[in-house]
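[job 4471] stage=fold_predict status=RUNNING
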Amino acid sequence: MNFKDKSVLVTGAGSGIGAATARAFAALGAKVHVTDMNTAAGESVVAGIKAAGGSAQFHLLDVTSREAANTLAAEFQTLDVLVNAAGWDIIQPFMDNSPEYWDKIVAINYLGPVAVTRAFLPALIASGSGRIVNVASDAGRVGSSGETVYAGAKGGIIAFTKSLAREMTRKGIRVNCICPGPTDTPLFAAQGDKIKEALINAIPMKRLAKPEEIADGILFFASDRSSFCTGQVLSISGGLTMVD
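[job 4471] inference complete, writing structure tokens
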């Protein structure tokens, strides 16, 4: 794969899957725009990319703010690839959820990607061959105990991906979706030991995904190797889910 001189924007790129994705694109020649709410984390990723000889720039972005998304998008005349990787979750029984928890889950995991995508669509259209890769979750495909509202939001992202793909084909834009299973990220590390052990035991491969393994799927959908794919959903979960 070659992304030389392609402009790529990754949300939630300060850590985890987003950071691995930003580094992978940069290693293949892309000009990467690292966005995150955590300035120190985002700038650290940019510094690492530059130290390795890559091209990267940090932008502070709260994906739940439509104003912030629109303001940042106004700086771009064209954009080749948008990766919506920002996400958040706490595993908690539905009966223990507060309305504030629901609002935060939906704002970050569903409405955030919707707002960012809408803001950057003009730049993606202007590129002539824009690609959008959304990061959902296998929870959105089959459900997950303790993640009921999160699963609903990620299921929404899957449906959003498919519907947008139908609309954007005529504009030359491909839209696809990655569904990670449990992945070795700071968000996963913050869960309780019993929950982590149960999730790992449920995976046929008996291990977590590495963020770089999820990034490989994202790069596939962003590359010409998937030139005849749009509206598709790919699970990368060690066999945790096996669905049509």
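[job 4471] summary: The first helix runs from residue 16 to 27.
[job 4471] exit 0
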